[in-house]
Amino acid sequence: ASQESSTFDQEAFGEFYGAITLSEHNHIAAYSGPWIGDASVCGKNSYSSGVHHLRFRIMDKFYNAPFLGISTAAQLMTEHMIACPSTNGWSNFDFPVVNGKEEFVGKDRILRPGDAVTLTLDCDRRQLLLRHLRTNRLSHLPIDVRICPFPWKLLIVFRRRDDSIRLLGGSVGLTTTDLDGKLPDPLKT
User: Fold this and answer.
1) 111-126 CB burial, b ≥16 within 10 A, e <16
2) Mean pLDDT on 66-72
3) Which superkingdom is the protein from (predicted)?
């Protein structure tokens, strides 16, 4: 197995803050608190180099999907992790969070219960990619490593009761060549 897939196979949800229930060997995380709240869970691995593909299934959501992204591994788990300066990722496909600030660039809430997504942590190029498998859309987010230094850790944030996500097995096989074909020229190596 490649380094990427062996790293992937070992990823699971770990440390959390707030009302989170973990199940199925820490591969399912669900928000179990009051109707509206804030709870976060991190992956157990940290990432400093290479390209890592983490595949998820949105099991249930109320309005927005759970936040999918990263923070620096040095960030302690606290309330409102989504607002921490080292938090980067997506609240929904068109709602990136950059350095703890939500940027509403669209209004498309395409993520639905049952959808599969792949979060790619491209440490070598200092970027995140989110691929929505049903629509085959790809979103890109450059990471400022001065604000979100390595190593990175997976971060999921829930805000509504019963929001849940499953970390799936297997790799989707996006290679560096595949990524180069999807990125604008200034982002290629």
Assistant:
1) beeebebbbbbbbebe
2) 96
3) Eukaryota
